[in-house]
Design goal:
alpha+beta; 5 strands; 49% helix; globular; endoplasmic reticulum; peptidase activity; membrane; transmembrane helix; Signal peptidase complex subunit 2
Length: 197
C-alpha cells in the first residue's frame, strides 16, 4: 500500500495528527467514519443521542445562572438557601450527565438514518461507536445496523485494528484504508440483517 493520502476532493487537505496522541488519533478516525457515512453512503445524521447531553447541560446552566442572578439581586446571607439548592441540583445534573454519557451514549459518536428518496424502502439506521484506550494502539469500532423492517433486530459488526493501519509514518490519515474497512463491516452488517429475516 502506498503512504500517500488520496481523497475524493482534491482541494481538501489531508488530516495530520500527532501519532503519539491517543485522543487525536481517535478523533481523526471518528471524523473519517462520519465523513464516509455522510458523504459516501448519504446517511443523514440523527442528533437525538447528542441532544440528550445538551439538554441536561442546558438545564444545569439554567440553575447556575439563576443562582448567580439571585445572589446578585439578594446578596449572600439572604440567598443562602437558593444557592444551596442550585449547587446541589447542578451536581446532581452533572452526575446524571456522567451516567448518560457512560451508559447510554457508550462511546457512540455517530447515529444516522438512510431515507429512501422514493419512499418505498423503510428508513435504515446505523450507529457507530469506538474505543481507543490510552497507551494502546487497538482502535475498536462497532457498527450497529438496522434496515428498518424490524426495529428489534440489529446487526452488530466489530473491527479491531491497530491505528498504524490507518496512519502513515508522518501521522497523516490514509482515508482509503479507513473507508475500505468501513465498507467491509457495513456490507457485512447489511448482509447479516438480511439473513436474519
Amino acid at each position: 500500500m502506498s503512504n500517500t493520502v488520496t481523497t475524493n476532493d482534491i482541494s481538501e487537505k489531508p488530516v495530520k495528527v500527532e501519532k503519539w496522541e491517543t485522543d487525536a488519533l481517535k478523533n481523526a478516525l471518528d471524523d473519517a467514519c462520519k465523513k464516509y457515512f455522510k458523504e459516501t453512503l448519504n446517511f443523514t445524521e440523527d442528533y437525538k443521542l447528542m441532544d440528550g447531553r445538551l439538554y441536561i447541560s442546558f438545564i444545569a446552566c439554567l440553575f447556575s445562572g439563576f443562582a448567580l442572578i439571585y445572589d446578585w439581586l439578594n446578596p449572600f446571607p439572604k440567598s443562602r438557601s437558593i444557592l444551596i439548592i442550585c449547587v446541589i441540583t447542578y451536581f446532581i445534573l452533572m452526575s446524571i450527565l456522567t451516567i448518560y454519557m457512560k451508559f447510554i451514549e457508550e462511546g457512540k459518536f455517530y447515529a444516522g438514518k438512510l431515507v429512501d428518496k422514493t419512499g418505498v424502502d423503510p428508513i435504515s439506521c446505523c450507529t457507530i461507536s469506538s474505543r481507543l484506550k490510552k497507551y494502546d494502539d487497538k482502535y475498536n469500532l462497532t457498527l450497529e445496523y438496522n434496515d428498518g423492517t424490524d426495529k428489534t433486530t440489529n446487526s452488530v459488526q466489530t473491527i479491531s485494528k491497530s491505528v498504524g493501519n490507518y496512519f502513515d509514518e508522518n501521522g497523516v490519515l490514509c482515508y482509503d484504508r479507513v473507508t475500505n474497512d468501513l465498507k467491509k463491516i457495513y456490507d457485512q452488517a447489511r448482509l447479516n440483517t438480511r439473513k436474519v429475516k
